[in-house]
Design goal:
Shape: globular
Helix content: 10-25%
Number of strands: 5
Number of domains: 1
Distance between the termini: 12 Å
Radius of gyration: 13 Å
Strand order of the largest sheet: 1-2-3-4-5
Order of helices and strands: HHEEEEE
Number of helices: 2
Strand content: 15-25%
Length: 102
């Protein structure tokens, strides 16, 4: 899940360079097939995105109840920094995922 969110950071920066805004659609940003939001069974959901930042959460069926979160943008850009599902962990640095324990 961490790797998938790190990939999303790169994909979002590429999207931003081309569109001057962060993307809201994982499928389009990642170049996945229409309707597919997974890579190696990791489900990613973009919670918020605009021209100043984004936030996302990732989960995997082999880790039920656990998740990882990431964001880019400051507090004024991202209205709510996401928390992981099991332990409510918060990513504390832009682009660096935070996850529930194993």
């Amino acid at each position: 899940m961490k790797t998938r969110l790190r990939d999303l950071v790169v994909q979002q920066e590429t999207w931003y360079a081309q569109n001057k805004s962060y993307g809201r659609n994982v499928t389009r940003i990642a170049g996945l097939a229409p309707g597919d939001t997974t890579t190696h069974h990791v489900q990613v959901q973009i919670l918020f995105a605009n021209a100043k930042g984004w936030s996302a959460i990732a989960s995997h069926p082999d880790a039920p109840g656990r998740s990882c979160v990431a964001f880019v943008g400051g507090p004024e850009s991202v209205p709510m920094v996401p928390r992981t599902r099991a332990e409510a962990n918060v990513a504390t640095m832009e682009g660096i995922p935070a996850c529930d324990s194993k």
